[in-house]
Specification:
This protein has about 140 residues and is an all-alpha fold.
């Protein structure tokens, strides 16, 4: 849409009988520069920070569900979730987004435990789905998990 701004400004100025030079080149330059800055800002600032933040939330949530599934009490489950989400191994790798994305491992283990407890295939499919998401997020974890 920002590329259309110079054209729209030129049309409006021609309709109002203003000068022929509508400075549309300058407007095009500024709108293009703004678009490029927006893409760079989104790619380098917003997406990595959102990925890191959501990784911590999903990690703690998955571990909380897994610990509750293993019949731990609320305090122990909460501590397990906090230790998993904010452990030194995760915090030390926070600069490497592909190593930080281990949030799907507790969900995979949760569904595997539910499958062995209940024997229903839907839990095995859930485990398979979360394992596929995990190995898609990081190829390192496909080998090590």
């Amino acid at each position: 849409m920002s590329a259309l701004n110079p054209i729209l400004i030129s049309i409006m100025k021609l309709k109002n009988n203003q000068s022929k030079d509508s400075h549309s080149g300058f407007v095009f330059f500024i709108s293009t520069l703004g678009s490029v800055f927006g893409v760079i800002f989104t790619a380098l600032i917003i997406v990595p920070n959102f990925t890191n933040f959501s990784s911590y939330i999903l990690s703690s949530t998955g571990m909380l569900f897994l610990a509750r599934s293993l019949k731990l009490d609320y305090i122990a489950s909460f501590l397990a979730a906090m230790i998993f989400a904010f452990s030194e191994a995760r915090y030390g790798a926070s600069g490497y987004i592909h190593l930080l994305t281990i949030q799907w491992m507790p969900f995979t283990l949760l569904f595997i435990h539910k499958y062995f407890d209940n024997g229903k295939r839907v839990f095995l499919y859930g485990a398979f789905l979360f394992y596929l998401i995990q190995i898609t997020a990081s190829a390192y974890h496909a080998i090590l998990f």
